[in-house]
Specification:
Helices cover 43% and strands 23% of the residues. By secondary structure, it is an alpha/beta fold.
């Protein structure tokens, strides 16, 4: 008897040849927790108009590869989700490495009727004390306010499609908008909620700390606080995600 395809792991990737092999191998190793639970899974990588070997690497690692010509992370996630067949979608960023224990916790959530959406706390793979402090602050806020980080998003596929996926007017922060729309349109009706997994944080790359100065990052976050909609809706303002620095 074939396993039920429970989870589609969707990885958006733009020029990720440096980190993609390690990340996909970590994803596949962690996904053994899904198989151990007697469930099926698939790995979908969306090549978001890369100019390097991203697509080739993804195929060599056994992923289903789809192409999205417009460079935008929400659009890449939507394109990957459109090619997915699982009952749940698990979006993981191409510079992140989930553990087997984290995915085992995710599997347990898929068995619960009261869960609509889930995220995970994060741990940087490098960085100074200040960076780790900021990361810890985010994790605290995430758990208290049930805010999902874009690097790890587990969502019921039917609900994701009902609300139309990620809103393409956003170039950053699209995961926060998705969570709000899901809770408003589906969560209240179905009495389902958002859960933040925290026992096994997602390890994610701290490369932006090396690629961008504190001034560049500080200006972005200040703009995000004082004019969040305008900042998140501007590709230029969100250039840290789109300027190609890797």
């Amino acid at each position: 008897m074939s396993q039920r395809l429970a989870i589609s792991i969707v990885v958006p990737a733009f020029n990720e040849e440096r980190l993609l092999v390690e990340s996909l191998r970590a994803v596949k190793a962690a996904a053994a927790a899904i198989s151990d639970a007697g469930l099926g899974w698939e790995l979908v990588v969306c090549d978001n108009n890369s100019t390097d070997r991203t697509a080739e690497i993804a195929r060599s690692e056994g992923a289903k590869v789809v192409f999205e010509p417009v460079n935008q992370i929400g659009r890449a996630r939507n394109t990957g989700a459109a090619a997915a067949s699982g009952e749940w979608l698990l979006f993981i960023d191409a510079d992140s490495q989930p553990s087997r224990e984290l995915l085992a916790d995710a599997v347990e959530l898929t068995r619960r009727r009261d869960v609509l959406l889930a995220g995970a706390t994060v741990a940087l793979d490098a960085g100074d004390l200040a960076a780790r402090a900021v990361c810890g602050l985010w994790n605290t806020v995430s758990r208290l306010r049930r805010l999902v980080a874009g690097s790890f998003i587990l969502v019921r596929t039917a609900a994701f499609r009902e609300v139309g996926g990620f809103d393409l007017k956003f170039f950053a922060g699209e995961e926060l908008d998705l969570a709000l729309r899901l809770q408003k349109r589906v969560g209240r009706r179905e009495k389902q909620r958002t859960v933040i997994l925290h026992r096994h944080p997602l390890v994610t790359s701290a490369r932006k700390l090396k690629l961008y100065s504190k001034g560049e990052m500080g200006r972005f976050f200040i703009k995000s606080i004082f004019r969040p909609m305008k900042t998140a809706s501007s590709r230029d303002e969100c250039s840290m995600w789109y300027d190609g620095r890797r």
